[in-house]
Amino acid sequence: MKVSELMGRKVLDKNAMEIGKVSDVDLMPKEGIIDTITISTGEVWVRNRTFEIKPRDIQQVGDYLILNLEEAEIEGIFEEEEEKAPEKTRLTLTKED
């Protein structure tokens, strides 16, 4: 399967609940393998969020990308990524004359 065929593919959790779509794929070029796949929740969840999975998190690839994760495990991934994310700094820009 080509990487381009994964892009935009719908993603389901292990209970066949729609999670989102594949929005990006990171490759390890020297090894020729996928390192991570980024999933965007888009319109499926209340707010648009993205998270990364490893190939080991995939149960099956067909018309859908089916994960071997449940919704609660995916929520845990969101929490981990939010903890790792650097704090956002608000900047105020002013124009000097």
TrEMBL record:
SUPFAM superfamilies: PRC-barrel domain (SSF50346). Pfam families: PRC. It comes from the Archaea. Residues 2-68 form the PRC-barrel domain. This is Photosystem reaction center subunit H.
